Amino acid sequence: MSFVVGLTGGIGSGKSAAGRLFEDHGVVVIDTDAIAHQLTIPGGAAMPAIRAAFGDAVAAADGALDRAAMRAIVFADPSARKRLEGILHPMIRAESERRLAGADSPYAILMVPLLVESGSYRERVNRVAVVDCSEETQIARVMQRNGLARAEVERILAAQATRAQRLEAADDVIDNDGKLADLNPQIARLHATYLATAGHFG
Predict the structure, then answer these.
(1) pTM of the shown model
(2) How many CB atoms lie within 10 A of CB 82?
(3) What is the pLDDT of residue 166?
(4) What would the pLDDT profile of 13-48 be if each residue is shown by its tens digit?
(5) Following DSSP, what letter does each residue of 143-154 receive, concatenated?
(6) Integer Cα distance of 100 and 29 in angstroms
(7) Is the CB of residue 91 less than 8 Å from the CB of residue 45?
(8) Does the pLDDT value for residue 121 go beyond 80?
(9) pLDDT by residue (tens digit) across 142-169?
(10) Nearest-CA neighbor of 13 among 132, 160, 179?
(11) E strand or H helix that includes residue 28
(12) Which of the listed CATH numbers 3.40.50.300, 3.30.470.20, 3.30.1330.40, 3.40.50.1820 matches domain 1-27+107-202?
């Protein structure tokens, strides 16, 4: 795949909704969050290394990653996040590269929640599209969607790049502060742009 767009945004920004709209246009979307989830389901390829690093307490009864337990460890100990990323990121990268190599659309979307935080991803994409909304909108969405307390959502936001940092890294900004329907024309415009650019690029 010669032309890759990195799609990112903070938690609750609406990355997944934007990704689905690109898929509706026939574009291959590779979701690194979904890959991470597959690596940490019962029998997932990352689970033996995660259990070895953090102990059996981070595994649920079915053998999947206990996300709440892992989140508590990571928030309490910043070095734990690095250890977890050291296990997951190489596996996610290898799988995403395998899927990119097999992508059969004119361009591909690589959806990476922490793209701005992870400098290496910036080298793997030709453009960065940021799904943007206010922090208050993010907090409200995540509280409603995940049932988390406001303080916990704010802690997650504090561990991510700031809105300003993401916007600074953006080649394209997708405004998702309003209704979901407002995304449709924005994605359609970007799709047309990316098709034209991918044609020249190829």
Answers:
(1) 0.87
(2) 10
(3) 92
(4) 999 999 999 999 999 999 999 999 999 999 999 999
(5) HHHH---HHHHH
(6) 9
(7) yes
(8) no
(9) 998 888 889 988 988 888 888 999 999 9
(10) 132
(11) strand 28-31
(12) 3.40.50.300
* Averaged pLDDT of the chain: 91
Q: Residue 114 and residue 102: Cα distance in Å, rounded?
A: 23
Sheet holding 172-175, edge to edge: 28-31, 108-111, 4-8, 127-132, 172-175
- Answer whether 4's CB lies under 8 Å from 135's CB: no
Where do the DSSP E strands lie in 87-135? 108-111, 127-132
Percent residues over pLDDT 90 in the chain: 71
Per the structure block, which two tokens stand in for 150? 């406001």
Q: Going by C-beta distance under 8 Å and a sequence separation of 6 or more, which residues neighbour residue 22? A: 7, 29, 109, 187, 191
Question: Which residue is listed with tokens 């795949």?
Answer: 1
The one-letter amino acid code at 152 reads: E
CATH 3.40.50.300 maps onto the chain at 1-27+107-202
